[in-house]
Write a structure and sequence with these properties.
- This is Deacetylase sirtuin-type domain-containing protein.
- One of its GO terms (molecular function) is metal ion binding.
- InterPro entries: DHS-like_NAD/FAD-binding_dom, Ssirtuin_cat_dom.
- Keywords: Metal-binding, NAD, Zinc.
- The chain is α/β, with parallel strands linked by helices.
- It folds into 2 domains: about 5-30 and about 95-140 and about 205-300, 3-Layer(aba) Sandwich (Rossmann fold); about 70-95 and about 140-195, SIR2/SIRT2 'Small Domain' (2-Layer Sandwich), CATH 3.30.1600.
- Helices cover about 40% and strands about 15% of the residues.
- The strands form 2 sheets. Strands 3-2-1-7-8-9 form a 6-stranded parallel sheet, sandwiched between helices.
- A hairpin with an 8-residue loop joins strand 4 and strand 5.
- The protein is globular.
- The protein starts with a helix and ends with a helix.
- The protein binds zinc ion.
Length: about 300
């Protein structure tokens, strides 16, 4: 089958479904090109890092954004100088991008039950004005800070005020923030970090409401056995496959009314049985291009 035949089939599934789930990983934001910078939010790209943070290549050993994850060999002043700058730029000010807008149009093409689940803590769905009552961020969110102890299950806080206070004071050459802007827990005075799944300290309950709504959605979708339930999975690799990739494989393998559209540049394989039964399709091209074509076909309805 040609790619365009497969795209037609995939678009048809979406059009016929009463439930659609978007499951997204790092690959989706990597294809979300910000028009001002001309790059996507690609955590593994050396070029994007140089462009977004030219000073960081001089004052640290970092080569790409991913290097900040679990990094220990930097001073708290540099760590917070970089992280506050990064979160300000990417979590709050990346803005709308065409790939996310295209996805939103796919979901709003007709009334249906839809949901978004993502491993990205970058708030891109919020920045693109998706319905946040139909959203689960499984690995946390850079919009929150939390106590690292943590001293209480409620010790998580909006990061934005801390960021607005400190970013103007990040030194443009050293990228360091003065020590007084290093965040401390308002409850216990201890160190803080972003509320993301970085260790045992992660306050997962900050996302309980999102998780309950996700489970309710899946429950509804899997029980409507006479109606189609399509999963559009984008850019989900093998960093944490047990969070999204394997559960999506499981859903399409177990349930005959589920369809899986997997968009993944490096690993587009889908479960063999589901593929043989024409219920799962994998695309290995650029996510932004495939989603644009899919959007056009879904909206045109000529499939
Ligand atoms: Zn605390």
């Amino acid at each position: 089958m040609t790619d365009s035949t497969q795209l037609s089939i995939a678009a048809n599934w979406i059009r016929q479904s009463s439930s659609v789930l978007i499951a997204s990983g790092a690959g989706l934001s990597a294809s979300a090109v910000n028009p001002q910078y001309g790059v996507g939010l690609d955590y593994t790209s050396v070029a994007a890092f140089r462009l977004l943070y030219p000073r960081m290549t001089q004052v640290s050993t970092m080569r790409c954004m991913y290097d900040a994850i679990g990094k220990h060999d930097w001073s708290p002043e540099l760590m917070w100088g970089y992280l506050f700058t990064h979160v300000d730029k990417c979590r709050f000010n990346w803005g709308p991008t065409s790939v996310y807008q295209d996805l939103k149009q796919i979901l709003s093409n007709k009334p249906m039950d839809s949901f978004v689940i993502t491993t990205n803590a970058d708030g891109m769905f919020e920045q693109n004005k998706f319905d946040m009552t139909r959203f689960l961020s499984t690995q946390g969110d850079y919009s929150l800070l939390q106590c690292l102890k943590p001293c209480s299950r409620l010790s998580f806080y909006e990061a934005r005020p801390y960021i607005e206070q400190s970013v103007p004071h990040v030194h443009p050459q050293t990228m360091e923030v003065p020590s007084k802007y290093i965040p401390r827990c308002p409850r216990c005075g201890g160190p803080m970090f972003f509320c993301v799944r970085g260790g045992e300290w992660f306050i997962e309950s900050a996302f309980d409401d999102q998780r309950h709504r996700y489970h309710d959605f899946v429950h509804r979708a899997v029980h409507k056995k006479n109606e189609l339930f399509t999963i559009i999975e984008i850019g989900v690799g093998f960093n944490t496959p047990s969070v999204l990739r394997w559960p999506m494989d499981q859903l399409v393998s177990d349930l005959k009314h589920v369809r899986l559209i997997r968009i993944n540049m490096h690993a587009p394989d889908v479960p063999v049985h589901a593929r043989k039964e024409n219920r799962a399709i994998g695309f290995d091209g650029d996510a932004a291009q495939i989603i644009r074509q899919l959007r056009d076909m879904v909206i045109a309805g000529k499939v």
